[in-house]
Design goal:
Layout: H1 2-12, H2 24-36, H3 41-48, H4 53-58, E1 62-64, E2 67-73, E3 80-86, E4 96-98, E5 107-108, E6 117-121, H5 124-134, E7 139-144, E8 163-167, H6 172-185, E9 191-194
Parallel strand pairs: 6-7, 6-8, 8-9
Antiparallel strand pairs: 1-2, 2-3, 3-4, 5-7
Length: 196
């Protein structure tokens, strides 16, 4: 089914399933806002996590209403379908919010699936910071726009024959998520390594 949908979307220009695409203009305006306001406290806190201007430019990350805007592409990488609204150092559910009416779980950043080796992280910021270094070594870095440990069976096709590193938080929930994902990835992946 997924191969048929992919063919319909790519070859025949049909609309992909899932959330309707977001307009590009607000995302690009938010991106410009961040680049123009690199001394804002929330932006400095984002930089303190290790994200570079190059990564911000690459993924069109922005700033709006006091939050970092992380635009999320659909699984085909051809349309933005969500904005993850991040508040560095916030607690609990206030740290990351989806755009209103959005929130389908997706792999982020989807372009990283092209690597033969994939590291799966528990969060967008962690994946972004890691890819800045690991891409140089042939390792793609992804997360899922959901809680740690979430990974749809339909996505396992992206891991077939790959070396997969599972890198979750070191708390109890992160350790459970790492074990769950390790078991899930065991069959499609060439090798699964849980990083503690």
């Amino acid at each position: 089914r997924s191969q048929v949908l992919e063919t319909l979307v790519r070859k025949h220009g049909m609309k992909p399933p899932g959330d309707a695409p977001l307009a590009a203009e607000p995302i690009l305006l938010a991106h410009k806002e961040l680049l123009d306001n690199q001394t804002a406290d929330v932006v400095k806190a984002f930089f303190a996590k290790g994200v570079t201007v190059e990564t911000i430019e690459r993924y069109k990350i922005g700033l709006r209403d006091g939050r970092i805007i992380i635009p999320i592409l659909n699984e085909y990488g051809n349309a933005w379908v969500n904005e993850r609204r991040y508040l560095p150092n916030a607690a609990g559910a206030d740290k990351m919010r989806n755009a209103t009416g959005r929130g389908a779980e997706l792999i982020y950043p989807v372009d990283q699936l092209s690597y033969k080796k994939i590291a799966v992280f528990g969060g967008e910021t962690k994946a972004l910071v890691a890819l800045q270094e690991l891409n140089k070594h042939g390792i793609g870095c992804i997360c899922v726009t959901a809680a740690e440990g979430v990974f749809k069976n339909a996505w396992l096709k992206h891991l077939i024959g790959k070396v997969v590193y599972v890198v979750m938080d070191i708390d109890a929930a992160g350790k459970r998520a790492a074990q769950k994902l390790g078991h899930l990835f065991f069959k499609p992946a060439e090798e699964v390594i849980i990083v503690h």
